[in-house]
Amino acid sequence: MVSAREKILIIDDDPFFLKVLTDAFQENGFAVCTASDGVEGVKAYLEHAPDVVISDLIMPRMGGVSTCMEISRLAGDRKPIVILLTSMFKDPPHEHETPEMGASVHISKSTRPLDIVIIVEQLIDRKKFQAAG
Question: In the chain, how many domains are there?
């Protein structure tokens, strides 16, 4: 089980999807903060310093690519795990060695919320293992 000190920032302009994903993470012991667009997302990142950022791709005011790139720039050496969610592709979740479109991990919005939680748990565990080794 993941400790509550691990914070997830979820950025999405769809209130229903935001609630479903927030509930899934909270039910699995994560502390969650949310934002409804990229501008709010960057502010929330600065305020909460989350361990993981999950952003929708297409949003008003600031899209997901710009949001993820700005958060990565602001993070400096303390980069969070950055995940881009989109309904634009239906491929299985995949990871890139070098971030593409501002994120290292891309997940289709059609992925079940619990599966997204499991992917995030695995990414956190791997990051801890790499930091310890």
Answer: 1
